[in-house]
């Protein structure tokens, strides 16, 4: 678990898949810790990365950039970042920045798990 | 909605963001602003402040940045005054998210793009020692 003043990050496992749960602000001071956490998870798992965004109420360009860097890092293996639980204000930032076109946003946890189970490489 | 003008003086250091968040929360309370407007103000100020601190002081000189938020009936005006290297932000940057070289997409570019997307008006004036930036935002009432 990585913590900074404005963000906590926890992992949970469901159906054999890791779900990363950031809570707080994904911004200038916290984005690097979040990115490092995602990179570690991307190295430990072979499937797409699931991110439960329920606890994130604020995203800035630094947070978006971290999401973009990891998305591009895992793309060659056919893997994606799959977000769910995105609140309306964060969704709006993803929309106006064009990130809805490059990230996968699922309607629910179940839908996200369904998507990851269709990965070319499933979790061991 | 109460009309008010609030000021904050911060050092050109990213660790000041905590104080900036507190200041924005306090302003939102004083002006009775909706949550969406509070978040938009935070996003604009954070992006501009982070941009200035990260790129505006190549010689790492110490500076104080003055942030003013003015609430009026029809909108919010944000004003930032610094002594940083002159950088005109009034032109919206072009964003290419499909660029495979992420290092080409500077953080500043994405941040400024967001600021342009959510602001009603952006003005930049060069001052004797730096930049005077004025941003106008609509108040989003549901």
Automatic annotation (TrEMBL), chain A:
Domain STAS: 7-116
Entries under PROSITE patterns matching the protein: STAS (PS50801)
Pfam families the record matches: STAS
Gene3D superfamilies: STAS domain (3.30.750.24)
Family: Belongs to the anti-sigma-factor antagonist family.
Protein known as: Anti-sigma factor antagonist
UniProtKB/TrEMBL annotation, chain B:
SUPFAM superfamilies named in the record: ATPase domain of HSP90 chaperone/DNA topoisomerase II/histidine kinase
Any single Pfam family the record assigns to this protein: HATPase_c_2
GO terms, molecular function: kinase activity
Domain of life: Bacteria
Keywords: Kinase, Serine/threonine-protein kinase, Transferase
Source organism phylogeny: Bacteria, Pseudomonadati, Pseudomonadota, Alphaproteobacteria, Hyphomicrobiales
Gene3D superfamilies listed in its UniProt record: Histidine kinase-like ATPase, C-terminal domain (3.30.565.10)
Residue span, Histidine kinase/HSP90-like ATPase domain: 11-135
Identification of the protein by name: Serine/threonine-protein kinase RsbW
Xref: PANTHER family: ANTI-SIGMA-F FACTOR RSBW-RELATED (PTHR35526), SLR1861 PROTEIN (PTHR35526:SF6)
